[in-house]
Every structure is written in structure tokens, then in C-alpha cells.
């Protein structure tokens, strides 16, 4: 395996290298070395183990290194040993100081600290342009460039990664970080941190460590190193020999490690041994007092020959580059003065002196030592040639400047976000699950509260939780007040949120947080989600009353979102604790959970889709707004059980006063057929109360003596019954003189005689649904061929209500909406929601003569009190998608089976020649030729429906995709031309979805 990785690197990097040293300055001419034509026939020397496993040595490399070295002056050789600190957030004076060191002291490299990517890239180009031998560029990017640079990507901290069991994901982190580094012209990432953090009070390592187990640290470090180095960036393991069991920070003082050599071999040194066999490129030596390795009391390990040469190089056989830790740190600088500390570190065996405080003084010290014989040519040659060899290996013999075009975009790709999402999802660790409280299953029987503890924000967590269920945020200034409010809830989700700004911030519980936690848990069923480092749990004296405990590690947006996914069962739980928490939870502990097939949330790339391609939906939405096809809309795309695109556009109306929110409700019109009536019919069919051959006369006696009595359920659901397309039922209820609703049929106030509301201040006479049914019974019956009609669903609604004694809104809510978490789906939404959350549908000038906002547009449904089988539902796109996901999963959702696969397949089948009738049982289907409701890019297995108000819901089992489009294209005038259909807006979006699928 190690050989294979090495060859990958050779083919990926060396074959890209050209034949010349490329200089940005005429001063470099002396160092140009012309190669021979036989470079491709170089012999690769592959030692048994070590650095050359990843970076093979070639004859051409050797010739190049020797040529450069033999032309160097003493000062130039010494200069190669220094890597100085550079900042892209400082002024011109600082840049000139670095340039001076490059020109006058011939330094070999720079390590960048705080700044921004464009500024750093420009500085890198500037510094490389004046260097004789191109510079090494290094950076501390332990969790990505964002550790030092703004506008760059941050991956999870090592402690979080320590919980991840999939090493392939850790290797991917290394690859992504390496690609970012290469794009920035960086050659060394001073990572991974391989300190085994056995001391919970460690002030400087902590979250930077993979954990307390040497084996876990080694596995994660190897995976990260493979990723980094396979993409051509040198990994640097730190902080040798091990900074994990310290209680002091070497930035401020000299910490001590008081363990025996035998113990250190078993713990601190264990990951290094493993990494060396994998071809680790470099090591950083820490400033530590280690009596077992250095007999001189208080003598820093970074300048100890016993540590750097005897142990690291001779005993452990490390052949790679050796860096000191920063020499400005007090752990070193308190021991010797600038210049002296540098020389001492070099004589101890280090190759590169990091962050020297005074290079000119240090160079002078080196020259004096050389003159006195204390520093030999052999010692100098050993390190300088090693440095040059590494410069060759990363292509610095053919240096090219950094292109800053699109730089920030390329450092923040969708693939990075997708990987981050996977990492956090795999890190989440369930530590307690009493009575299987996780994942929350029976949400129809739950009343759930959220309480925030900690001093950081939990808004993303709340938003994510509300995607699954009706969550109430409960707050109070007093504990007693809070407890009183929580009495009515069955489950309390407590989020403990601490700052995610840096890996070093304190995550300790306050006394009040602990008191409130204990008291809330004592009287409630509690799920505690801890968005903080594992060690924070050591303060919790008892977990006895906490039913569910989830360790989420970091209070990031993604961390909060994936935790909500876990709590409600749309993702698995596989993380294992990287450190021990007192006697309660040992290292390596973690309860595994399987998802229960709820619609979740993810990044497109994680379900085989392209984020950049999906952004074309934004352009189509912009077209809808600009052309006034609709004032606003919600668009949702899901694949493989994950919502990957969910956006709202525009405003409620064309006055642009209220923007559309994801939570807003739209009149979904005929989507009601497959969201309310059809699932109840499927349920009734499943219970064998009806069959496809059941006749209309058996459903409703009013049709017994009509020409419609023998129409079957199959014929009705497939729109093949011969019904008229529509009857304008409302027209016969208007006053023939005024054109307004007749006083005989309507009232402006509610009463027992006029109980059903049609619109604001408008109620219809009791029992008018029977009049509608009678009109259908007496209507003309046509030929039994495909003709879309609302009649079947008006009829089925009446059947279901008479059969059960409950209204359809109650039936659908009890049987589906509550348990599916569709709490933003309802008939007559003004009874449950504020009018500001409901998008207006139209300005009715023909029937109700008012703005319709919260009252259904469909006239027949309005005349049925707002509850129609054909229309009447209001919902947001997410709730619609939940029902579509139930269908896509053929009857299973949230760990519950609603109907059988066989039943669903029957309803999603074609029963007539596709050329004559494309309908399934209740579902609309594609025509197969690109006409109708869909593009020609969906499979014949796909199904869905459209709605008059400008809505669509479509699912495709073949690609496992769901598409939901909600709009109020009927505003302000429902009789205006349907530009949404004319412009094929929904079909165009389907085409984008199809093109976005990059992995079948």
C-alpha cells in the first residue's frame, strides 16, 4: 500500500515538473540547471521505509540538488535553514522587512500567519520573485487554511475527527486541505497534530488532538498524512516527542512531560513510529522539558541533541525534514537569546529553524561557529541538501506564480462543504439513549420544547429541529418560571452551545447552566445535545436523569444541522468518544443508531448531485420574478432521502413588501388530490374497504339511479370515467342582478344555519355539499376516455367523510400529517397560523370580491367550507416533500409503515395505453415524449401532480429525486394567461435537476 501511494504521488507531481529551475529574477541565472533528454528514464530508489516511500529520489533530483548546493556561498547555505514569519494582514513595512531577509539573508522559506488568501498569494508571488532559490511556504492549517486566513474553509477540529470511524473520510480531509494549500502556493501544512491528549486540562492541545488513545491518534494522523501527501503537500507531525500530557502552554513557558521512556514509547511516540513507516515528510520538535530524554534540567527538547538526533533520527530512523517549533515561543526564547537558540537547535539536529526572532544575528552566529569548527560543512550539507531535495519534490525547480483569479471561490467549494457535512454526521456520538428516546419516533404524540444553555447561538439548531416537528422555544429569566412552562411538554431538547470561534476557547458549564440542567432533567424527559468539547462533560456530576445524550463537539452551523438530523432519525449515529469522560463514558464508547427513513438534509455532492449546476435554478427563479410570472415561490429538490436545495424567492405580492420565507404556506390547489384524498383512499384500499372495481353507486347512494352508478374507482382515479372537466358551481349561487353572493345561500356571519366559511365574512348555507354532489350526479356523462376532472376527488372526499364520520382535514391530519411531521400542512390555515405566514392567492373579482389570503382559491372547495378533496390544502414545500418521500419509499417513513409496497405500486401503475391516458391511480405520470407536466428527462416510473395556482410536486424512483415548486402565479388575477406553463418553468427546473445528477 505504501508503495502504491508513493507511485501515485510520483505520477501526480513529478511527471508535471519541467526541466528547468524557473526564476522570477535575473539573479537566479547561476542556479539554472539544464537537464538531459533521458530524464524519464531516471532510476527510482525505493528504500524499505521512510520519506522516500512518498517522495522517491531520482537521479535528476540528485543532480539538481548537487548543482544548486555547489554554487552556494556559505551565507546562502545558512539562509536556507530559516523559515521566517510573514503576515498578509500587516503593512508595507512588514513586507519590506521580509523582502530584505530574502535578498540579504537568503532565507529559505516563510511561514504565513494571519491574513487573507488574495493578500497572501500576492505576497507569495512578490517574495518568490526576489528569491534566488524559490522559497518554501508553510502554514499552520490544522483544520484548514481558515485557522490562519479569512475567506477560506474550516474543517472540523482534530478532536471532532477523532470520533469519526471512517478513515477514508479523514484521508479526504487531507486531500482537500492539500488542494487548498497547493492553490495558495503552500508546500508545508504543519499538521497533523499527533499529540496524544491524556491530560484533560491541557491548555494548548485539547481540541487539536485526535484523542487520548495512541492507536486512534496514529490511525487518524496516518489517514490525514496520506491525504495531504498524495496531493503533493508535505505533512508535518507535531509536537515531537509529545505535548499531550502537559498542563502548561509552551507559547508562554516550558511545559514538562514527566514520564518514563518506556511509557513515552507506548503513548507519546507511538503515532510517530507508525507515521514514519508511512513516509511522513517532516516532524516539528516541541519546546518541552522531558527528563527521561534530556538529563539537563529544564533543557528544551527542541535544542536537545538527545531528542532530535539520538532519539528521532538514530533510534527512530526518521529521515525526513525536522523543524523546530516557533523559536519565538517562550518555551525556547526564555532559555537562550536570539541567534544562540537558533544555532543550538541546528546543532541538536533540526533542519529548519521556524520563526526565528533575529535572522541576521543568527546567521552571524552560524558563521562564527563555522569558522571555529563547531559547525562543520558536513553538518550544513546534510540539512541544506535535504531542504533542496524537498524543494525539488514540490516542483520549486519549476516555480510558477500563483494565479489569483477565482482564488477565493476555489478555496471554498461545494465539495468542501459536502465533506464537512459527512465528517460532522459521522462524528456525532450518542452517549446515552434511555428507553430508546433517540431517534424521536412518534412525533404525533409528542409536544417538544427546546431550551438553550451556554453562551453561544443555537439558532441553526432550532431552525433545523423545526424542519421535523413543531418545536417550541421555551425561555425564562428564572428556573422556576422555566420549569412551570415546561410542564406541558413531553420532551425537552436542551442545546448546550459554546463558541466555535477557536479550538482554545473555554467550553466549561457555568454554575447556573449545571443547576438548570439538573433541575430540568429531574422533572422532564430530556435530550441533551452538547455543542462543545468532550471535556466539558466532565463537569456534569450525574447523567442519571438525562434520557438522551448527544455529543456534537462543535457549535458550527453544520454541527447543529446534522444533530437535528440524528435526533429525528434522518441519519445514522456512528461516532465514538475520542477521550474518556470520568468513569461515565470510556474512550471509544458510542451508541450506534440507524436512521428511520425520515426526509433529511444534506449537501448535493453527498447524494451525487452538483451544487453549481443546481444554482441554475436560481436563474430560472429570477426569470419568473423579472417577467412577473409569479410574485414569489418556494423550490425544493431532494435526492436519496436528503433535501439538497430548498430556497424561497420573491415576495408575497408584487408590492415587494413581504419576502417569501421557507415556512410560508401556499394554496397548493390540486396537489390536495395526492396530499390529502389519495393517501386516505390508499389507506382505505389497504384496509380492503374498497377495491379498484368498487362502483360509484357503492361509494355514494346519490349516484345509484344515475348513468354514473357503474363507474369504478379505477376509472375515477385515472380520469377515465367520462366526467365533465368542471362545473362552475359558484355561478348558480350568485345574485342574478348584483353578481354578488346570494343572500339566500350566503351570510356575512357565522351561525348554525350558515356554518361553513367561504371567505372573510362569508359563510355558506349548511349542507351545500349535497347540492354540489347532486349537480355532479345530474351532469352530462361523456365517453369513457381520458379527461381531467375534479369530480372524482369531490366524490371521494364525501365518501371518506361519510364512511368515517370525520371530515377530510381531520382524517388526513390524524392518519398522516401529524406522524409525518407535516405540521405546516392544513386546510383553513387562518385557524392555525398568522395571516402573515400565508401567501395571498388572488384578488377575487368574480365570486367573493376580496383578497384571498388563507382562503382557498378553488371555488368548489371554498363552498365546501374550505375542505375539498380536489383542493383546499395549504402547505410549504418541505411538508409537500415529506409526503412525496413517503410515496418514494413506498409506504415507509419515520420508522412506520403506512401502506404496503404492493399497494403503492398498484397506484403508481398505468392502466391504459400511455398514448391515450398517462394517469396512474390519482397520480399524474409523464407522457414519455416531453409533453404534459414534465420534461423528457424523468423516468416513466415517476409520478406527481400540478396545481392551478402554480404548484407542482414530482418524484422519480429511478433517480430517487423529489421536486416541489410552490407559487402564487394566480396573483393578482387568476384569469390571466398561465405564463408558468407557457414558459415551461417547471419543466426547465426539472431539466436542471436531471443535469445536476452526476452519479447514478
Question: Mind telling me which CATH architecture of the largest domain this is?
Answer: Alpha-Beta Barrel
Annotated CATH topology of the largest domain: TIM Barrel
Helix fraction by DSSP (H/I, runs of at least 4) = 25-40%
Average pLDDT level = 93
Rounded to an integer in angstroms, the radius of gyration calculated over CA atoms is 35 Å
How many strands in all? 30
Distance between the termini: 29 Å
CATH superfamily of the largest domain: Glycoside hydrolase, family 3, N-terminal domain
Main sheet: strands, sense, barrel: 8 strands, parallel
Number of domains: 3
Strand residues, percent: 5-15%
Strand order in space, largest sheet: 7-6-5-4-3-2-1-8
Structural class comes to alpha/beta
Name of the level-1 CATH class of the largest domain: Alpha Beta
Number of helices: 34
> Which blocks of ≥5 consecutive residues have pLDDT under 50?
1-49
Describe it for me?
This protein is α/β, with parallel strands linked by helices. It has three domains: 2-116 and 137-410, TIM Barrel; 428-596, Glycoside hydrolase family 3 C-terminal domain (Rossmann fold); 652-743 and 784-791 and 799-980, DD-peptidase/beta-lactamase superfamily (Beta-lactamase), CATH 3.40.710.10. Strands 7-6-5-4-3-2-1-8 form an eight-stranded parallel β-sheet. A six-stranded mixed β-sheet has the order 9-14-13-12-10-11, sandwiched between helices. A six-stranded mixed β-sheet has the order 15-17-16-30-29-28, sandwiched between helices. The two termini are 29 Å apart.
